[in-house]
Amino acid sequence: MKLALRAMVLRNILCSVIALSLCNVCVTIHAQSQNDEVTPQVQQLYAQAQAAQQRDDIPTAIVKYREMIRLAPHLAAAYNNLGRLYFNQHDYEHAAQTLSKGLKLNPDMPTASAMLGMSYLEIGQVENAEEPLQTALRANPKDPLIQMALSKVCIRLRKYDQAVELLRTYTKENPRDENAWYLLGKTYLQLSEDSLGRINQIDPNSVVAHEVAGEIDESMHNYDGALVEYKKAIDLAPNQPDPHLHMANTFWSISKWDSARAEFEAGLAHDPNNCTAHWKLGNTILEANGETSEALTHLNKAVELCPELMQARVDRARALIKSGKQADALPDLLAAEKESPDEPSIHFLLASVYRAQGNTAAAQEENRTYGRLQRRASEGVAAQANESIDIKSKAH
What secondary structure does DSSP assign to 15-43, as a single string? Predict the structure, then answer.
């Protein structure tokens, strides 16, 4: 009587519900339509397969499930349990073959779809991986393994917009996953390269093509190459502001102040309300010859146009201090300190203002803050240098 009851319970478990789990996601598979194939021999094989799994005897469990499938070829759960074993053993080819058969019998198994898509990805059948992974993601939209697998598939299929969307969602939930950030950056870079390719296809000698090429050179610190590209853009469109401002910014980056000033002025002649250009021109004048009145003309304009441009406020304060107008410099410095309290140069200038006003205690406090932040910055630079040396040493 007990044996009969046990057999009946085992039959009900096998026929009605078989739970598959992957990454804490459970899928319940209903097998009522396959009752006819669940014979006592199939029940026994299922029990033997489960027992083998419990003692970590995976080869035996695989044999038992394969025999179950031979006797019960329409039992979807058996295919998927066997497919899961293959997947966990990294036998992705057999996993894909087995899981696809199970899903044909019962397509409503998201975990099996996820494993099938990942198996296809592992064996290089990227085109086949997309559909099952999309199905799995619809069922479990926050599953991180599925998100990452599908993003890799989209990258391989050059569906970069979809990959970006997936990776942005993933990194919001997993902000410390360096591999995800690497993939996102790589995808953005590929989109940039594709865009440049399209521009070159349209007209490789256009102003835009030369500007984009110059920006790429500039981003890689190839300033000579950038200047060549911007010069070509200026020759094609001398009355457009952007080529002049691109070239001016490159000269500014390498401290060629006279050349930078000429190009900023040329750009502003065609774009007089560009606050960043006014700021950098004022900064350029200060760095070149310290002429405060001319620099202030542009720095005042920059702050007028863009009050939140704190770099312009700091440079304006610097020019005012040089002109002996320390009191006028204080509001700009306090606004800049509020936004960037860890910037050493702001505290250095504040100390100068307080000292001129006779506020010795405040000046000393700002000097101490400046010294502390400057040491911290120096230590950070030294740490980066040591890390770079370590990386190079390990590489060698």
Answer: HH-EEEEETTEEEEE--GGGGGG--HHHH
The C-alpha angle with vertex 70 and arms to 67 and 71, in degrees rounded to 5, equals 90
Task: Classify residue 308 by its DSSP letter.
Answer: T
Percent of the chain with pLDDT over 90: 76
Pick the CATH number of 2-156 from 3.20.20.150, 3.40.1190.20, 3.40.50.12780, 1.25.40.10: 1.25.40.10
Task: Give the 3-state secondary structure of 98-167.
Answer: HHHHHHHHCCCCHHHHHHHHHHHHHCCCHHHHHHHHHHHHHHCCCCHHHHHHHHHHHHHCCCHHHHHHHH
Rounded Cα gap, residues 154 and 186, in angstroms? 13
Which of helix, strand or coil describes residue 379? Answer: helix
The predicted-structure confidence for 275-310, as pLDDT tens digits, reads as follows 999 999 999 999 998 889 999 999 999 999 999 999
Backbone angles phi, psi at 25, to 5 degrees: -105, 125
Contact 279, 299 (CB under 8 A): yes
| CA distances, 63 to each of 70, 144, 310 (Å) | 11, 32, 71
